[in-house]
Design brief:
Strand 3 and strand 4 form a beta hairpin. Strands 1, 5, 6, 7, 10, 11 and 12 form a seven-stranded mixed beta sheet that branches. Strands 2-3-4-9-8 form a five-stranded antiparallel beta sheet, covered by helices on one side. The chain has about 220 residues and is mainly beta. Helices cover about 10% and strands about 40% of the residues. The protein has two helices and twelve strands. The radius of gyration is 16 Å and the shape is globular.
Length: about 220
């Protein structure tokens, strides 16, 4: 993981200055950004509440890979998920990325947990998924992504970070000018103190707690 990005993300997270609104679009750069655009997580569906344990995320293109990074405050980092395609969101902390290519109905969902357990799904239609029209295992696909995770403790903040490097061709991301698609970065944050307590949050302004909602994801644009 690039130390400059880690340092810039740590400095940004330490400010705690969350914008009033989530941006509707994100302009992605080629190569590791020296002045990254940050996405702060919130819970728009509960009066735009910002969790005490905050999260920021950013994205960039690295050759034929899309890099998705998130730094997450967390006082109890854990996951009981194992290997590939476990039900990560039910078994502990997890970082999630959703992407829908421009002009397409289908979309992709990939997860990484702190212990590098992963989930990779190719989903034909969000409405049918919400309506439970698909068998879970039928959605599995091989994204070819490479993941890294780590812990941090600095500037009064502590938690974990995740990095996904996803081959652009595997998720239908065509590198061109203008609009590239829609996306969101989300997390499930579990805490075992006093029993299992869960708090979800996301980079995108979801009016309801439903991450499978491409209409409310950010627009991804090329610089």
């Amino acid at each position: 993981m690039d130390k400059i990005i880690l340092s810039k993300c740590m400095n940004e997270l330490a400010t705690g200055k969350v914008p009033a609104k989530a941006p509707s679009s994100f302009k992605i750069s080629s190569g590791i950004p020296r002045n990254p655009q940050f996405l702060w997580f919130r819970r728009q569906w509960t009066k735009n509440y910002v969790p005490v344990q905050k999260t920021i995320s950013t994205l960039w293109l690295d050759g034929d890979f899309l890099s998705v990074f998130a730094m997450m405050e967390d006082s109890d980092v854990f996951s009981h998920a194992r290997g590939r395609n476990d039900q990560t969101w039910q078994k502990g902390d997890v970082m999630e990325f959703f992407f829908q290519p421009e002009g397409r109905r289908n979309y992709y969902e990939v997860h990484v947990a702190p212990n590098l357990a992963t989930l990779e799904l190719s989903i034909p239609d969000a409405k049918k998924l919400v309506g439970e029209k698909y068998d879970f295992k039928s959605l599995f696909f091989k994204s070819g992504m490479k993941c890294e995770t780590g812990r941090f403790k600095s500037k009064g903040k502590a938690g974990w970070w995740g990095l996904m490097k996803i081959p652009v061709e595997k998720i239908g991301l065509r590198i061109k000018s203008g609009r590239l698609g829609r996306f969101a970065v989300c997390r499930y944050n579990y805490n075992r103190n006093g029993g299992i307590i869960l708090q979800e949050s996301a980079s995108a302004p979801f009016p309801k707690f439903r991450f499978h909602d491409p209409d409310n994801w950010h627009e991804l644009r090329a610089k």
